[in-house]
Design brief:
The chain is of the alpha+beta class. It has one domain. Helix content is 21%, strand content 44%. The strands form 2 sheets. A 5-stranded antiparallel sheet has the order 1-7-6-5-4. A two-stranded antiparallel sheet has the order 2-3. A hairpin with a 2-residue loop joins strand 5 and strand 6. The two termini are 27 Å apart.
Amino acid sequence: ITSKAIHQVYKMMLDKSSKFQRFSIRKMPENRCVAFFKFIEITFRNGKFYTSRGIQVYKPYHEDPEDYDDDRSTIFDGYLQIRIDHIIVNGQSRFDIEVYAHE
């Protein structure tokens, strides 16, 4: 699946022209994931996400530092939430992403 196709589904969920409530993609190559984020005006640099529009990006807080997963981020864009896990598969940077709607 292309980053443009992912963006189309994302836009349909965001403007509620689709009945999709959730989708996930596993082990997405970094270049495809970064291209998708570019479509929604998010930049991924040096392991961090940046945006110039009203999107909240955060990493979960855990009381026990050993439970902290430094490679997981969550992004809120309107009523959509994107959960991102940055993983390494066979030495390659990959992303697991899950997008879901909140009513």
